[in-house]
Write a structure and sequence with these properties.
Strands 1, 2, 3, 4, 5, 6 and 14 form a 7-stranded mixed β-sheet that branches. The mean pLDDT is 95. With 295 residues, this protein is of the alpha+beta class. It contains 10 helices and 14 strands. It folds into 2 domains: 114 residues, 3-Layer(aba) Sandwich (Aminopeptidase), CATH 3.40.630; 169 residues, Aminopeptidase (3-Layer(aba) Sandwich), CATH 3.40.630.30. A hairpin with a 2-residue loop joins strand 2 and strand 3.
Length: 295
């Protein structure tokens, strides 16, 4: 199997393929495949009308379950090919409904809670209405007492402003040590690369502007009935900026056909987990790692 490194030019082909084969996890989107290609050393191939993605994890190189009409046959071929070389096969991002595929193999299963995607009702985040979101609304109301805002779509003409905002709100210096520090540092370069290639990626994005300066911004993509939020940032010095960014990005990009918003995983970062849970996901996209033994 001849895997290749994805490039930004692959975006249109992937977007069309994912529109026909939607898995509802952020890993298998244009952003998931291309944006983080350097950090996770992602590689891909198309085989028998299936898409196969591999990535480097803390446990070694893993493979996502193939996407397409012949997915089980391609997965079996992968296991067989690696088995002949005496290699175990690590599958990552496996949803619960696919675990039964491995019953005929000698394998082990591990829950990857840090990689679970947070999926929300688009109606919930577009309005932040109801008792559950009273805290977020209080922060927004406090902001509105002293200021106003404007939502601006990110375009090829103004994406340099969004890029500057993300550069000025870098989280790398405050990140935890080790893996998460490297992840946060990588996010800065990922964001810059996205804005430098804005038209090629084909993403949607929006900025919250108040008193002439950006206080929040988000970038995402739509597949089928789901809006995927790939990057999201707000000025932590402005009370209400974050919930305002969440609400406005959802409200401006979720039409009647968008039922869900996937805001990706928390990477095991405690503060991020608390923040994502505070917006009350309606679903968690569970992911498991499965190691198939070659023996």
């Amino acid at each position: 199997m001849n895997f290749k490194k994805p490039t930004v030019s692959l975006a249109p082909e992937l977007r069309e393929f994912f529109s026909r084969h939607h898995e509802r996890i952020a890993d298998l989107t244009v952003g998931g495949v291309i944006m983080w290609r350097d950090f996770f050393k992602t590689e891909y191939l198309f085989s028998e009308d299936c898409f196969l993605l591999s990535a480097e994890t803390q446990s070694g190189r893993g493979f996502y379950f193939p996407l397409g009409d012949n997915r089980e046959a391609v997965a079996a071929h992968l296991i067989e090919s690696r088995g002949k070389e005496g290699l175990d096969t690590l599958f990552i991002g496996i949803s619960p409904d696919k675990l039964s595929f491995f019953d005929s193999y000698k394998h082990t299963v591990k829950e990857d809670r840090d990689m679970f995607d947070y999926i929300y009702s688009s109606e919930d985040l577009s309005t932040l209405s109801g008792r559950r979101y009273a805290g977020q609304r209080n922060h927004i109301n406090a902001f509105m007492k002293g200021g106003t805002f404007e939502y601006l779509p990110i375009t090829g003409d103004n994406c340099s402003l969004a890029k500057a905002f993300f550069e000025n709100t870098s989280r790398a210096s405050s990140a935890e040590d080790g893996y998460y520090s490297r992840l946060s540092a990588a996010e800065d370069s990922v964001c810059s690369e996205v804005f430098d290639n804005w038209d090629a990626y084909g993403f949607i994005g929006g900025m919250i502007v108040s008193d002439g300066r950006i206080i929040g911004a988000a970038v995402g993509d739509v597949i089928d009935d789901t809006l995927y939020v790939h990057i999201e940032r707000a000025d932590s010095s402005v009370r209400g900026a974050y919930p305002l960014t969440v609400r406005e990005f959802a409200a401006h990009n979720c039409d009647d056909g968008i039922k869900y918003i996937n805001r990706e995983d928390d990477a095991g970062i405690a503060g991020l987990r608390t923040a994502k849970l505070a917006y009350h996901p309606c679903l968690m996209a569970e992911k498991y790692s499965v190691t198939v033994s070659s023996k």
